[in-house]
Design goal:
There is one protein chain. By secondary structure, this protein is of the alpha+beta class. It has twelve helices and 20 strands. The chain has one domain: FAD/NAD(P)-binding domain, CATH 3.50.50.60. Strands 5, 6, 12, 13, 14, 15, 16, 17 and 20 form a nine-stranded mixed beta sheet that branches. Strands 1, 2, 8, 9, 10, 11, 18 and 19 form an eight-stranded mixed beta sheet that branches. α1 packs parallel to α5 and α1 packs parallel to α9. Pathway: Cofactor biosynthesis; ubiquinone biosynthesis. It comes from Novosphingobium album (ex Liu et al. 2023). InterPro entries: FAD-bd (IPR002938), FAD/NAD-bd_sf (IPR036188), Ubi_Hdrlase_CS (IPR018168), UbiH/COQ6 (IPR010971), UbiH/COQ6_monooxygenase (IPR051205).
């Protein structure tokens, strides 16, 4: 654990030191904003080899954020560029291809979550503006007109001007504040792993829609031994999930190969298999008295478009910009007008992105020949309309809407 004693008052008390919480602490530090970061996990366990085989798609806007807070050099060689996205309805004819112009760069980059964590944690250890409290959690949160105080399970009391909830989907801080959630369960489960495959992926991400759920292959860097790799996110109905989880590896791989139609040749497992339930939630409020909610604590969505983490990183960019501008004018980080500005800026953008993702999930989940034919007709129309494809690509790159400075180039 790093950090000072309990009298050390800082601008922010950030509960949750995961990818979004720690990015906030670093981005805030670059703007001269100090923070306490509290996380109940042990960083060594989170970054242990093999602890988390997941990978994340980092949009162009999110990459700009990482570069702008000084992580570009650490991360540059670790991400695999997404050069194109192929969208298909069950591998039938009429696929949709998104490929940016040569001057636009890639559609994003795929990173192992472990590599992102290592870069963030190394930078945080060297940053005096961050006091990092690990293997402990908040047991009491007090918010009042003059500031916030958080008592930790180890007895320490942390003080600040603004409390930030970045604890993820099950955020106790959000729930304690009484924020209403719009939520539903897709009754689907994501099967997540990584695959070695015979043919190179050439930077193409595949989004294959089946009535039972989407099946995504996302390009990863070749392994150190030169073998080609992709991340797999296979959505199965909850009623079938227990059976799929129990499958021996060889049978699981046969099922995966069946859905890949040989696009990458022979395959084998490259990471442990994990699974998690897919649910949607959207917090009706993002702020309270001296409280801001960010990342999965505010919004959880279907992984179909790979935008969950990117939405959280947009929250970070907006919150830091709003706070830094306010503090330059002499306002405190916990000032109600600043928080209202954050909520207004984020609410619409988040709701739009989540509505589109939810709509896609439902549209492609309608079984039958007629809906499939209609989807392929629609995809064919989009394929022939460069302007419409540009809108979709800007959305995928995170470059649409009003962007905070940290997410611009």
């Amino acid at each position: 654990m790093t950090g000072n004693d309990s009298t050390d008052k800082r601008d922010l008390v950030i509960l949750g030191g995961g990818l979004v919480g720690m990015t906030l602490a670093l981005a805030a530090a670059r703007a001269g904003i100090t923070s306490h970061v509290v996380d109940r996990a042990d960083p060594a366990e989170l970054t242990a080899e093999g602890a988390d085989g997941r990978a994340s798609a980092i949009s162009t806007a999110s990459w700009n954020l990482f570069a702008n807070i000084g992580l570009g050099d650490r991360l540059d060689s670790l991400g695999c560029p997404i050069e194109a996205i192929a969208v298909t309805d069950g591998m039938k004819p009429g696929r949709l291809d998104f490929r940016p112009r040569a001057d636009e760069g890639s559609l994003g980059r795929m990173f192992a979550n472990r590599d992102l964590r290592l870069a963030l944690f190394e930078a945080a250890r060297d940053e005096p503006a961050i006091a990092w409290h690990t293997r402990t959690e908040a047991v009491r949160r007090d918010r009042g007109p003059y500031g916030v105080a958080v008592e930790l399970s180890d007895g320490k009391v942390l003080k600040g001007s603004l409390l930030v909830a970045a604890e993820g989907r099950q955020s106790p801080t959000r729930d304690e504040a009484g924020f209403a959630l719009a939520r539903w369960d897709y009754r689907h489960r994501a099967m997540v792993t990584a695959l070695y495959h015979e043919k190179p992926h050439q930077g193409v991400a595949w989004e294959i829609f089946y009535p039972a759920g989407p099946f995504a292959l996302l390009p990863l860097l070749d392994a150190p031994d030169g073998r080609h790799r992709s991340a797999l996110v296979w959505t199965v109905a909850e009623k079938d999930a227990a059976g799929v989880i129990k499958l021996p590896d060889a049978v699981f791989l046969a099922e995966v190969a069946d859905r890949m139609h040989g696009v990458f040749g022979a395959i084998e497992l490259a990471a442990p298999r994990m699974s998690y339930p897919l649910r949607f939630h959207h917090s009706g409020k993002l702020i309270g008295e001296r409280l801001a909610v960010i990342g999965d604590a505010a919004h959880g969505m279907h992984p179909i478009a790979g935008q969950g983490l990117n939405l959280g990183l947009r929250d970070v960019g907006v919150l830091v910009e709003v706070l830094a501008e306010g503090m330059r004018l002499g306002l405190e980080p916990g000032d109600a007008q600043l928080l209202a500005r954050y909520e207004k800026w984020r609410s619409l953008d988040t709701f739009m992105a989540m509505s589109v993702t939810d709509g896609l999930t439902r549209l492609f989940g309608i079984p039958g020949r007629l809906p499939s034919a209609a989807r392929r007709l629609g995809m064919g129309a989009v394929q022939r309309l460069p302007m419409l494809k540009r809108v979709f690509m800007n959305e995928a790159r995170g470059m649409s809407g009003k962007l905070p400075a940290l997410l611009r180039g």
